[in-house]
Amino acid sequence: MDARVSELFDSGNGSHGGASNVKQGNDYAVAHKKACVKNKKISKARLSRNFKPNNNAPYLPPEAEEGNIEYKLKLVNPTQYRLEHLATQMKWRLQEGRGEAVYQIGVEDNGMLAGLSEEDLRTSLTTLHKLAEKVGADITILREQEVDYDSDVPRKIAEVLIRKVPDDQQFLDLRVAVLGNVDSGKSTLLGVLTQGELDNGRGRTRLNLFRHLHEIQTGRTSSISFEILGFNSKGEVVNYSESRTAEEICESASKMITFIDLAGHHKYLKTTIFGLTSYCPDFAMLVVSANTGIAGTTREHLGLAMALKVPMVVGSTDDAVTAAQQFAQSPSITPIFTLSSVSGESLDLLKVFFNIIPPLSNSKEQEELMQQLTEFQVDEIYTVPEVGTVVGGTLYSGICREGDHLVVGPTDSGHFNILTIGSIQRNRSGCRVLRAGQAATLALGSFDRSLLRKGMVMVSPEMDPTICWMFEAEIVLLFHAKTFHKGFQVTVHIGNVRQTATVEAVYGKEELRTGEKAVVLFKFIKHPEYLKVGAKVLFREGVTKGIGHVTKLQPKAHYQLSQSEDDEA
């Protein structure tokens, strides 16, 4: 386990200071950090997104066959046959990047920054624009840079973002968990980004984000809310300043950033943990008040994000484009955006950063998940007038369409009930097909809401879900005031599952102390749950905190349909 995670938790609820690199005079700063990228091939491909400074021999890493990065020395007056080949190549790169690709113009396949004359560069960019039009995409020039060569004629390279025009709601959707201490300005910042207007200094923009009366009265978030910021194929911001509804934003956007606004107050920590474990955020954004610095739950939120391997995005104040390119290069780089929701300082840099930031998974991984059986995690349950029961959550695998028949459970007795999917909505806009990795709300019509609870799953009837009361997990005890032993009760978070469990056994040891590892047997006390081996585990009780992963399940039995549904079948 990363020692930095343990250090962050070791303070308990303390408010240690720490270098915060905050520019005084701004309202707050947003700190970002990238932790890990699962696919090594993706990481290698994305390293080329950052220009590598070298005065003697300027090189990028050699071009990778996979990934969404393409090197082109020049594109000057290609033949029609060559144009067709280049268009096919661009389609491949766009598919690899799930609708986004980056072209390095003036770069050879081996990564050498050869550069082009001004005339050849302009001609190449014109050709690239024609290719993009041919495949239904737009281009945005991210930056141009002179190459340090011993030449009388200046030579340049260009970095260009290619993005597909939205087609049938298949926009690229990235989820960003927004963390930070209470009163750090999280909701205000999101209000400014999504509403398109600056704050008055007293939190006016955050009022549109609150869900409950007591939140408006206190100015503090107590629940999880979702806000969207879109970018069209040209990289322009699409938000509520020009669009009246979420549906209009979805129709215009090629890329969508869904912000998960989490509570900052310590008494709502369980809600914040649920948001991090259940909603599968791609990145985490930590908001730090420039006035108070790193205080309260800030250290704890940072520790949670790092422990759960939620990457922290990289940011920079002097060059947002450079920050986005270095994002995949090093987990140790942690630049900071210093910005203000009142004056608007550096907000444009933050928007540019979100526009360029790449997804963490490629199209191949997406296809593999879509080929699996359907599994939808239930995170929220509503009753909507004239619609009926509605559930919100994330499609973990497979594909979900209107009219599909799924089974939902497990119930307290370990059974599953049959249901039919009605309408589907993504970001409050109608959707015909839901694909793996996407979040949505599903209408279930007259299905009895009392049969549902958070933490359930809706799966394909062909699946044989493993239901268990007891499971083993390899854990690390991050912090505990005394000792951790058999009989201890903790609240366990595994994905969208949140339930109290008892420690039935600590294998090989009588007790655990802070920093020690062991395999522990847990038993749920209320009802069985659907779990998977390898799932991340986070548990807490007071100041006690620990993390780990599921290593073994002790199945209750194979799942069963409820008696009434079985009879009907």
UniProtKB/TrEMBL annotation:
Key words, A-Z: GTP-binding, Nucleotide-binding
Gene3D superfamilies listed in its UniProt record: P-loop containing nucleotide triphosphate hydrolases, Translation factors
GO molecular function, one term: GTPase activity
Annotated Tr-type G domain residues: 171-363
Presence of keyword GTP-binding: yes
Claim: Ribosomal protein is one of the keywords in the record: no
Stretches for region Disordered: 1-22
Family recorded in the similarity comment: Belongs to the TRAFAC class translation factor GTPase superfamily. Classic translation factor GTPase family. EF-Tu/EF-1A subfamily.
Record's protein name: Tr-type G domain-containing protein
Organism: Gasterosteus aculeatus aculeatus
